[in-house]
Amino acid sequence: MESDDIRDQLRQIERAEASPYVDQRRSPWWFAPGFAAWFGAMAAVQSFHWSGLSSSSMWTALLMLAVVLPLAALLGAYMSWHQSYHGAWPRTFGPKPPEIRRVYWYYSIGFLLGAAGLVALAFVVPWWVTGLATTAVAYVGLLAYERVYERAADAVKARLA
Amino acid sequence: MTRSGIGDLDPVIHAPKRLAAMAVLSTADQVTFQFLKERLELADSDLSKQMSALEAAGYVAVAKSGRGRGASTSFKLTRAGRTAYRTHRDALRALLGED
């Protein structure tokens, strides 16, 4: 086998490996607002629980049935839709293009900082304020993430073109 | 650790179309038939043939969901497939002196 053939093969392999990360269709308009509302609802439920208003087991059971279970079902439906819409579910762990790895790091750090701030907020404001604040933070964060991810994916495609 | 070489090249994976399919699958939990078809720019029959060879080798698991027009076929690497792909890739790198 010639070195140039092998080099070509490795380049094609690298392009193919990057594909699940960078050959994704643009997210639909409802992605950011939908997920922001989802995070907001989850945060509101948790905050309500911490507030002591749900100290009785009846309240906890009602919350679970009326809010948490439908939210969990929605997440399941989203994951199934995601697979058929994008066609590939990139692995969270394992090797990935460095440009994408950087975005994952930004997302993880942003998520942790945002969550820490919102948890702190939950102890000083009413539960519904926590819910609204989470929705707003998640909306802005997801829009920023989408933009940064798209730029990183373009950079990978340009590098491997 | 043993050094990889030409003997580690897997004849099942070595075919370019199958190698590309394995490479796509290596970084995804699951990939649909349609996604592979578009990325690899293959006809349905050709892709089916390549994926059947990988499935027969035990490198790929196939999952089918739905019926009729909404039906979809997905693939994912098996553990043996992941190991075989990694070995093959390392062997290619070793041949180039990149290991």
From TrEMBL, chain A:
Regions that span the bilayer: 29-49, 61-82, 103-121, 127-145
Protein name (Swiss-Prot/TrEMBL): Transmembrane protein
This protein's UniProt keywords: Membrane, Transmembrane, Transmembrane helix
Automatic annotation (TrEMBL), chain B:
Top-level lineage group: Bacteria
Domain Winged helix DNA-binding residue range list: 18-95
SUPFAM superfamilies: Winged helix' DNA-binding domain
Regions crossing the membrane: none
Pfam families noted in UniProt: HTH_34
PANTHER family in alphabetical order: BSL7504 PROTEIN
Protein name: Transcriptional regulator
Organism from which the protein derives: Nocardioides imazamoxiresistens
